[in-house]
Specification:
Layout (H helix, E strand, L loop, with lengths): L9 E4 L2 E4 L12 H10 L7 H9 L61 E7 L27 E5 L18 E5 L7 E3 L14 E6 L6 E6 L2 E6 L2 E6 L5 E3 L11 E3 L4 E4 L6 E11 L7 E9 L2 E10 L5 E6 L10 E6 L1 E11 L2
Parallel strand pairs: 3-6
Antiparallel strand pairs: 1-2, 3-4, 4-5, 7-19, 8-9, 9-10, 10-13, 11-12, 12-19, 13-18, 14-17, 14-19, 15-16, 15-18
Length: 354
């Protein structure tokens, strides 16, 4: 189990990890994606939510009628886990020589610190209810797929050294916590596992890259409807108060850029061969006198548009915007960007193979 430091040394950038500054020494502050990259670099993985819980309970207490609150029983005990202390400890501290005195706390799988010390990242995304979890464990299921979201929440298990409460509820084997996969706190860590068979997660690749240079450009199709004939294909947009313009003088690169001049402007993404999982685009707000602009990613679920990513654009200088798209988003014109008083240029669509 690896602890993290107080400074964020590794950050996630749509499709790869970047070391911030010149950091080279451990411990480092790590996000979910940093933990996953570390694990897979050495041939390991992070456990799913269900795998972590079974490991915490041990082989003798994983049946429904044998569940215990803690890996050791049903009564919280400071001699068996590090919690409410404000101090992290080395892995295996509770080996029978701890203070206050207690027994060797490795379970029948030989695992230490399945309760307390640090929250541990898991592969699984947040659940609205446990009934949503797949009946058969699957790494490619939406809930466990690494490419499901560029950002979003992932599960943490086990509680930490600063978990409070006399009953130790955060340390319960069945307790789970969710946190944004791109963020971190000093009470988070992770534990790696090795799978019996090799498994490689599908990783996002750029399928469409569009700088909006050349082509037929903006044409009116109807009231508030417009299209762009661009090198990567035909793009479409609409919206209740849409005013879309080409403004070459404000382009980040090349000769083209789109200005979304009002609220409620939409840019529909073209069909992709792979499953779309993220969008990267450079954006700046319309003017220095405007409040922050915004760019949203939305996916059509049946007849309802659901937001999957949102970024505020606060500068008149171009900044990179990364947006999540649902792993199982439908085909066709069912993904769009909602744009509010911003320039957009150099857009990339990330997909994984079907």
């Amino acid at each position: 189990m690896i602890s993290i430091g107080d400074d964020k040394d590794i950050r996630w950038n749509v499709n790869n990890l970047e070391v911030v500054g010149t950091t080279s020494n451990l411990p480092v502050a790590v996000t979910f994606y940093g933990a996953m990259a570390f694990a897979q670099f050495y041939g390991y993985d992070l456990p799913t939510d269900a795998e972590w819980e079974q490991a915490a309970r041990g082989p003798d207490h994983d049946d429904e009628d044998e569940h215990q609150l803690f890996p050791w029983g049903n009564v919280i005990d400071p001699g068996k886990a590090k919690y409410s202390t404000g101090n992290k400890g080395p892995v295996g501290y509770y080996d029978g020589n701890q203070s206050p005195f207690g027994p060797d706390m490795k379970n029948d799988y030989g695992l230490y610190d399945m309760a307390g010390n640090l929250w541990e990242w898991c592969r699984s995304k947040d659940l609205s209810s446990v009934e949503d979890y797949p009946q058969l464990e699957s790494l490619t299921h939406d809930l466990n797929a690494i490419s499901y979201l560029v950002s979003g929440a992932r599960a943490l298990r086990g509680g930490a050294y600063n978990s409070q409460g006399s009953e130790g509820g955060e340390l319960h084997c069945n307790n789970r916590y969710w946190y944004d996969a791109t963020q971190y706190t000093v009470s988070f860590g992770f534990r790696v596992i090795r799978r019996e068979t090799d498994y490689t997660d599908p990783w996002p690749e750029v399928e469409i890259s569009e700088s909006f240079d050349g082509g037929g450009w903006i044409q009116r199709l109807g009231f508030h409807d417009w299209s762009i004939t661009a090198p990567s294909g035909d793009w479409r947009g609409n919206g209740g108060y849409t005013e879309v313009h080409r403004d070459d003088t404000s382009a980040r690169s090349g000769t083209g850029v789109i200005l979304f001049n009002q609220n409620y402007s939409y840019l529909y993404l073209p069909t992709t061969a792979g499953l779309p999982v993220g969008v990267s685009v450079w954006a700046r707000k319309r003017s220095s006198t405007d409040s922050s602009g915004r760019v949203y990613a939305q996916v059509l679920n049946g007849i309802t548009w659901s937001q999957t990513g949102s970024v505020s654009v606060s500068s008149i200088e171009y900044e990179k915007v990364d947006l999540a798209i649902g792993y199982s988003a439908p085909d066709g014109q069912a993904i769009r960007l909602y744009c509010d008083k911003v320039y957009l240029d150099d857009l990339k669509i990330y997909t994984i193979p079907r």
